[in-house]
Amino acid sequence: MADRVSLSAGYYVDAVSNASIDVVTREPVQETRDEIDLGLDYVVRDTLIKVSGSKSKEPDYLADTVNVDLTQDVFGA
Questions:
Q1: pLDDT, tens digit (0-9, with 9 covering 90-100), for 56-71
Q2: CB count in 10 Å sphere of residue 17
Q3: How many domains does the chain have?
Q4: Which CATH number belongs to the domain containing residue 65 in this structure?
Q5: In a domain, 41, yes or no
Q6: What's the predicted TM-score (pTM) here?
Q7: Is 77 inside any structural domain?
């Protein structure tokens, strides 16, 4: 089973402030974005199944993503 399954996870933090080059304001800005990613790869014969998802959170925006990919090796030996 261990040679057919792969797990992955990630955590990302992005901070924006008045010091950022793309932010021009007269008032102080301090904003952060947190993102969590999880993924699972599973091999069944000649088929690779990938399932992944992410959740991103900002003060004014929420994003949830789910991906499912299937890959079939047609000409494998």
A1: 998 888 999 999 999 9
A2: 11
A3: 1
A4: 2.20.200
A5: yes
A6: 0.70
A7: no
Would you state the structure tokens that stand for residue 43, as one six-digit string? 């091999």
pLDDT value, residue 6: 95
Contacts of 8 (CB under 8 A, 6+ apart): 37, 38, 39, 40, 41, 52
Q: Which of 21-25, 38-42, 57-61, 70-74 has the lowest mean pLDDT?
A: 21-25
Question: Which residues fall within 8 angstroms of residue 49, CB to CB, at 6 or more apart?
Answer: 41, 42, 43, 68, 69, 70
The residue among 3, 4, 2 whose CA lies nearest residue 42 is 4
The Cα 70–Cα 40 span in angstroms is 12
DSSP string, 3-44: TTEEEEEEEEEEEEETTSTT---SS--EEEEEEEEEEEEEEE
